[in-house]
Amino acid sequence: MPSLRVGIVGAGGETGGSIVNGLLEAGDFDVVALVRPASASKPANTALKQRGVEIRPIDLSGSQDAMVDALKDLEVVISAVSAGEQLAQIPLATATKAAGVKRFLPCAFITVIPPGGVQGLRDEKEHVYNHIKQLSLPYTIVDVGWWYQISFPELPSGKIDYAIGFKGQTIAGDGNVPNAITDLRDIGRYVAKIIVDDRTLNKYVFVYNELWKPNDIYSLLEKLSGEKLERKYTSRETFEAQIKDADEKMANGATDFLTHVQKVTAQYLISWGIRGDNTPEYAKYLGYLTSKDLYPDFNFKDYEEYIKEVLDGKAKGVYAELRELQKQMSAAQK
């Protein structure tokens, strides 16, 4: 049986990298990284090429004909674009349809959030989903819960700062709302199963590994590290004030990444930390299939084992650019 030819937009990002790894690990796919023409020769793409990934230029703001030519031999296209590029998927979806691609996975890959005002990023994604449906383009929407890699706070000793995704974490509400979490490394392994599964065609799929309450994560980290953590609880009203502040900054012309992160993070924490949206029960209510029902034998990374990996200094941090930006901002304020 010939390998399935899969194109990935955003193969060099956190989610895209996990998907590349998952497809290569499965061994049943020809993987094509669809990259900006200007970045085709960058070291990250050279490294992908050395692993057997085809590097193929595509300009999402270019002509439709050129995009169709770049996509026409692909059977599946997966988008893992950055948060700020969501609407660039609209011309990509149009070209994907014209190219006769059999399945399109737009850039979902977030927590379960209902559309319509809970979170701005989710609502941008909804514009893309609606466009896909208007095209009658075969699709699968995959959401993945909150990552293990951004689920835990720093320790007083600084021992695990190397792996911290976001410093200065706070606990939303009372910290007792269950939240579905997934190891970033498992996302690609789930995707490798989903894209060859007829049950998931034209469906929403929620993949997750475990359910944890923030208070329980803090207790686990205290037990395994032997350190005592300060628990900072934040109310919905405070998050809403942060969102309002970010909106006012952007209305006055602010375009910096940290202002955007301020708003999006507060909306996320209200959604999964206070509203309780990010659970399999709510996902099923919204019509999702779940990984537990689809793939009950999936061998995922245990969360406690992951935290031990972090404490042993063996984990890999995420969002290196954001961590560096935070460091520079902190230094500038001193």
UniProtKB/TrEMBL annotation:
Stored Gene3D superfamilies: NAD(P)-binding Rossmann-like Domain (3.40.50.720), UDP-galactose 4-epimerase, domain 1 (3.90.25.10)
Q: Which domain of life is it from?
A: Eukaryota
Keywords tagged on the record = NADP, Oxidoreductase
> Which residues, if any, are the signal sequence?
none
Organism this protein belongs to: Anthostomella pinea
Q: What name has this protein been given in UniProt?
A: Uu.00g035720.m01.CDS01
Q: Where is the NmrA-like domain?
A: 5-272
Example of a GO MF term: oxidoreductase activity
